[in-house]
Structures are given as C-alpha cells and as structure tokens.
Amino acid sequence: MMRPLRPSVPGPAVPRPGSDAGGGWRADAFWLAPLLALFMVKGALLVAMVGTFAGHDEVDHFYYVARLAAGNGLGVVGEVALPAEAGPYRDYVADYPTNAEVIQPPLYHALLVPFYLATPGGTEARLIVLRLASVALGASVVWIAYLTARLLFPRDALLRAGVPIFVAFQPQVAFEAAIVNHDILLILLVSLVLYLTLGGLRDGFSGRRQWALGLVGAAGLWTKVSFGLVLPVVGFGLLLAWWNGGGSWRELIRPAGRALGLPLLLVSPWFLRSFLLYGDPTGAGRLREIPEYGEQARTYREMICSGAFWRQMLEDAWGNFGWRQIPLDPWDFRAIWLLWGLALLGLVVGSGRAVASRRGGVAGAESRVRRQSVLLLGLSVGVMVFGVLYVGTIQFTQARFAFPAVVGVGTLTLLGVGGWLPERARPAALPVLVALLMALNVVVVLRFMLPFSYGPGGGAAIAPVAP
Fold first, then answer.
1. How does DSSP classify residue 319?
2. N or C, fewer C-beta in 10 Å, the chain?
C-alpha cells in the first residue's frame, strides 16, 4: 500500500489547531464570535441597502437560478433571453437581452434553486433570500480565514486575529457576500482548497485529504472555470511536501492524481459541452463577442505597462462597487493606498529581520513549513492577479477576479504590519487595525452606498429604464 506524503518536518512543527499551544478556537471565541456576528449583520444591512440588481451581473445570475428552478435546462449563450421583467434593469446587463452567465458552470445556481423555490412572493423577495445565502457563504470565508491563520500562526495574536478581521472588513469582499453572484462561492472554495493544502503541507497529505482536495477542486471548477488557476498552487504544495519528506516519485503520483486529476475528470463533461457549443472548453471566445465589453480587451503588455490600468485595479479592489457604479473619492483611495502600501512594505522589513536573525544563529520566527505556506499563499495571489490580466485580454476586467486569494492578501498584509513591530508590541496593533477598517466601512456606507441607493433621483448612477 502506498503511504501518504510524509509531514514536512518530524512531528508538528506548528502546534495543531485546537491544541493548548496558542489556544484553540474556544480561546478565541470571545472575539471571533462577535466578528462573525458583526459580519452577518453588516451583510444583512448591505442586502437591504444595495439597490435591486445593482450588483455586478446580478440580473443574469438571478435569472439563471430562475431558469433552473423552472426546469428549463442550461441553455446556450446568445439563445437564452432574459424575461420581460428584467427590462427595467437592462443597463445592468452585459449582453441584454440575452443572459451571458449561462456560459458559466451551474453549481452555484443549482445550489440556490431550493431557496428560490421555497421563497414566497415575487422577484424582490427572492432576490433578498438569495442575497442572504451569499452572506452565509461570506461568513464561511471569514471562518476559513481564521482557521488558516491559526494553522500557520497559532501563537501570534496579530496574525491569528488580524487575517480574519481583514477579510471580514474588506469592503469589496463584503459586497460580494451581499449580492447574487457565484464569485462568493468561488472565494469560499479557493480559500478552502488552500487551507486543505496548507494543512497537508504541515501534517502530510493523507488519502482522505487527497480525496477532499479533489472533490473541493471539482466543486470549484463546476462553480467557475477560473478556479483552475489555483490548481498549480495545490500541485506546488504537493511537490513541497514530497520534497520535504524525501520520498520517491511514485509517492507523488497518486496524491497528484486525486487532488489534481480528479477535479479535471469530474468537470470534463462541462468542458466538452462548452467546446462543442462555443469552440473552446471555457467559452472565452463567445465572451469576446459581447458588444462594448469585448471591445475593451487589451494585450498583456498594454495592461502591465499601463499605470492607469493598475490604478484602476487598486480602486476596484477597495471601491467602485458593482459595475463601478459607486466610486470612492480620490482622497479616500489615496489614504487607503498609503496605509496599505506601508503595511506591504513591512514585508520587506520583516523579511530582512528574519534573514538577519538566521544568519546570526538565532532561530527564525517561522518554521520551514510556515515559510513554505506563506509562499503558497503569495503564489495564490499571483495566479489570481494573472486571472485579472487574462480576463482583460477577453473583455472588461475588474480586480474582483483576484478576490479568491483574499486570505493570501490578508496574510501578506498582516505579515507586513508585523514586520514593522517588535513581537511583544504586535497585539497592540489589533485595536488600530479594527478601528481603521471599521472607519472605512462606515465611510463607505454613509458617504457612498446610502446616497447611491436612497439619494436624489432614486440614487442610481445607472437609472433603471422602462421596459
């Protein structure tokens, strides 16, 4: 019988979650439970606050669910028309009068069908219920962010608490978790597969973990094909575990087959269907044909070398909610960039300090497993940023395509904050972090979202038109 990939180091280099070292989740419940509750309350407020169908692609996703609920099947892009009641929101639709989202795998939409059918009332009542389902998915992302941070930094209060706090208060992630859009399920599944991979790097990739990675990977691909971007990160995690364990090549084949081959095998019917209908497994060729959006496609060189492009992506990462309908003020963006930039610069400072301590013969704060795990999280950010660029070669793109790597972004940000501080001073940074992020959320809601939704003229930057 083939043994699983061995742990990266003899014994648990990092205390196991739930152990006394660093405290288990029960020791953190005094702040974690209020954080999750606050996230859900904030999500419910956003559900009520965001205008009807004002979320990006929300019209298409909602009526994709409605189509499945009516038993009308998957449909073909360009042939599935939106119903007449979607007419007032045509300016929110990428390819009106057709539904462009039926090009997407149907798992998210199929999961929402029972909620759609069980909800009495009309479109608005169902929209609210489906949005509330997104809030629950968002809370699960915060929970996985906590598990990941506790896995890697059980004794570091700044990281263990700061990462889930960052994820919970990142305003665009909260917006994704308050609208009907499969991106929030994608964020959840990418976060989960990364957590499983990091756990395998520390504890070994048992057969059960390999199957779990394969099934979560299949669910991710059946949610959105861009999930495939994270599969190389999983593969690199398997390779690192194999390298650390010093096993034979044969010990790498079976885990790779289960964790990477199984998702591709299970999603192959969808890829085959897309190839037969659109000429390629992802349907990207059809997306290029959408008027106005396809016209915004650019080359990689044009995007990478454009300062205006990266400024737009940074703005999209923190504001410009929906179809860039709700922008923040320039000075708000500048304040965010200054603080976030200083935090990320701390990565350089902290890395330099860690290298100096190792050269001086002092054991570094991070174990080999922890350093490799941070590398994997950084790689997840890199592949998702590549996803932003890839979409930009097809059509209109936004920073939200990188949001599945939010746990990695939060981890790198908090590592940067910690890089500026001596270890014993790190917990004192948590109240400052909470205050800054809460202030940002209050500003977003009071100065921008509420006026947009309830201000003069109906508050719509794109006013719904009569059918």
1. S
2. N
* Predicted local confidence at residue 18, as pLDDT: 40
Q: CA-CA distance, 193 to 438, in Å (whole number)?
A: 29
Residues contacting 141, CB < 8 A, separation 6+: 167, 173, 177, 184, 187, 188, 191, 406, 407
Q: Return all residues near 126 (Cβ < 8 A) that are at least 6 apart.
A: 62, 66, 115, 116, 119
Split at pLDDT 50, 70, 90, the class of 148 is: very high
Lookup: tokens for 112:
């929402």
What is the value of pTM for the model shown? 0.91
Give the whole-angstrom CA distance, residue 139 versus residue 226.
22
Side chain identity, residue 403: F
Measure the CA–CA gap between 348 and 351, rounded to whole angstroms: 5
Contacts 24+ apart (CB under 8 A), 69-73: 69/113, 69/116, 69/117
96: region left, alpha or beta (phi > 0 left; psi from -120 to 50 alpha): beta
The angle formed by the CA atoms of residues 23, 28 and 29, to the nearest 5 degrees, is 135
**Burial bucket for residue 439 (CB in 10 Å: 0-12, 13-18, 19+):** exposed
**End-to-end CA gap in the chain:** 65
Residue 70's SS3 state is coil
Q: How many CA atoms lie within 13 A of 188 on its CB side?
A: 21
- For the CA atoms of the chain, what is the radius of gyration? 22
User: What is the C-alpha to C-alpha distance for residues 272 and 100, in angstroms, rounded to an integer?
Assistant: 19
Report which residue type is found at 20: D
Burial 23-45 (b: 16+ CB within 10 A, else e): bbeeebeebbeebbeebbebbee
More confident residue, 289 or 213: 213
Cα–Cα distance measured from residue 225 to residue 101, given in angstroms and rounded to the nearest whole number: 13
Residue 186 · residue 406 · CB < 8 Å = no
Tokens of 300: 């990689």
Chain centre to alpha carbon of residue 123: 27
Which among 207, 303, 325, 319 is positioned nearest to 255, based on CA atoms?
Answer: 207
- Say which DSSP state 97 is in: T
Rounded distance, CA 53 to CA 99, Å?
14
Cα-based distances in Å from 407 to 317, 337, 380: 14, 19, 9
pLDDT at 297: 87
Q: Which helix (H) or strand (E) holds 304?
A: helix 300-304
